[in-house]
Amino acid sequence: MNRVNQLEPLNQEHESAIVFANKILIIAKSEDRKVLFNGIETIKKYYNTELEVHFQHEERTIFSPIFKEHREHIQMATALLKEHGFIRLLIQRINLQNANKELYEFATVLKNHTHIEEKTLFPLVTSLFSDEQLQAVINFTPVEQY
Ligand SMILES: [Fe+2]
Ligand SMILES: [Fe+2]
What we know:
About 80% of the residues lie in helices and about 0% in strands. It contains five helices and no strands.
């Protein structure tokens, strides 16, 4: 397996994150409370079944080695880590009363975050990480099962 392919599972999760965010952007325009309610439920389910695990995967196997061994890129990793925190916060506070605004905000932040990781972070990881560090990305298993 070459070095680029080792990020493939995360690339695929990013593709589905973009598709998901686009779907939420459409729902965010709805004036139907039932549609908005279902949109919120969909986000919570997506977070619990996919997104939290994806975040942990990146935090443990990508951000952590950057903080420890590639400190020249610490600023970028810190910014992306803060966005994970912000997205987690958005999901906690999302409610039907401000659903249009909050669904839009969630989808926009997730989409931008994912684009930055694909365009800036992952090429860096591929060129910078040791074989062992890349292997750890592939070998990741989440501590908690959702
Ligand atoms: Fe991320
Ligand atoms: Fe990501």
